[in-house]
């Protein structure tokens, strides 16, 4: 962990002695609305690293390849190096966030089936919603790869929905990022945490995710702590 390869809004990617491996360090820094809102969430880095490690291991046990190799520090995961697709894959089970603004859904409305959306990862364009046709036109992902990404995203959803239901949490929606390993396999990368998911308590519907920061709802650290507790159960 010597050379910084990349610093994003919530993570730093470090080189390791092995050229096929990187270390991802999770930061307490939080941003929202395209980086317009900035802050810190105390202990977010260690909590998100732990939550992400547990969830990636769960997915591996369920036959989904992920980039996770090991947790090497409280806030740092050793990962296989991937060539990431510049696409965010969002899976929605209930309406919340941008789909409510875009299409007028009421927050919390159940969707008939898990809904997949793609967003272009490009801050200068504010990560716009894109269609399969845009993905093909821009040459972001090949047709066969996109089919595989859709299949994997829906499988992740079914594994995680069941896991969280057992812990009294509604998985409202979440964002995934995929990449390709040196052998050309499609592998799940990035993170799965309260930064990248919407989690609601199944009974009270209390938000237990980054929406508490985005919308100044208070109890931000408590929400991350509560999600770690439930994931560790
Ligand atoms: P959205 O409703 O704002 O489109 O967000 C959908 C899901 O994706 C939500 O769980 C939050 C997550 N997400 C990210 O992880 N990163 C982002 O940059 C955005 C906009 C959303
Ligand atoms: N993290 C993203 C940003 O700062 C957006 C979000 O999660 O709401 O743009």
Write up this protein.
The chain folds into two domains: 3-80, Phosphorylase Kinase, domain 1 (2-Layer Sandwich); 83-219, ATP-grasp fold, B domain (D-amino Acid Aminotransferase, Chain A, domain 1). Helices cover 30% and strands 33% of the residues. It has helices spanning 44-61, 98-103, 132-137, 143-165, 211-214, 220-232; strands spanning 4-7, 11-15, 21-26, 29-32, 37-40, 68-73, 76-80, 83-84, 87-94, 110-120, 129-130, 169-180, 186-189, 197-201. The strands form three sheets. Strands 8, 9, 10, 11, 12, 13 and 14 form a seven-stranded antiparallel β-sheet that branches. A five-stranded antiparallel β-sheet has the order 1-2-3-7-6. Strands 4-5 form a two-stranded antiparallel sheet. The chain starts with a strand and ends with a helix.
């Amino acid at each position: 962990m010597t050379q910084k390869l990349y610093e994003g809004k919530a993570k730093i990617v470090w080189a390791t002695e092995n050229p096929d491996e990187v270390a991802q360090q999770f930061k307490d820094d939080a941003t929202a609305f395209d980086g317009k809102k900035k802050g810190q969430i105390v202990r977010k880095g260690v909590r998100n690293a732990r939550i992400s490690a547990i969830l990636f291991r769960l997915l591996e046990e369920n036959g989904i390849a992920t980039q996770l190799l090991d947790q090497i520090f409280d806030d740092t995961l050793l990962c296989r190096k991937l060539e990431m697709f510049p696409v965010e894959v969002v899976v929605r089970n209930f309406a919340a966030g941008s789909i409510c603004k875009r299409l007028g859904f009421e927050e919390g409305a159940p969707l008939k089936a898990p809904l997949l959306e793609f967003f272009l990862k490009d801050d200068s364009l504010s990560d716009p919603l894109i269609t399969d046709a845009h993905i093909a036109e821009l040459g972001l992902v090949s047709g066969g790869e996109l089919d595989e990404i859709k299949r994997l995203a829906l499988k992740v959803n079914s594994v995680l929905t069941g896991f969280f239901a057992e812990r009294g949490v509604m998985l409202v929606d979440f964002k995934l990022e995929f990449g390709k390993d040196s052998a050309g396999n499609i592998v799940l990368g990035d993170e799965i945490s309260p930064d990248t998911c919407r989690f609601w308590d199944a009974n009270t519907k209390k938000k237990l995710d980054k929406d508490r920061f985005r919308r100044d709802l208070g109890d931000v650290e408590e929400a991350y702590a509560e999600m770690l507790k439930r994931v560790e159960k």
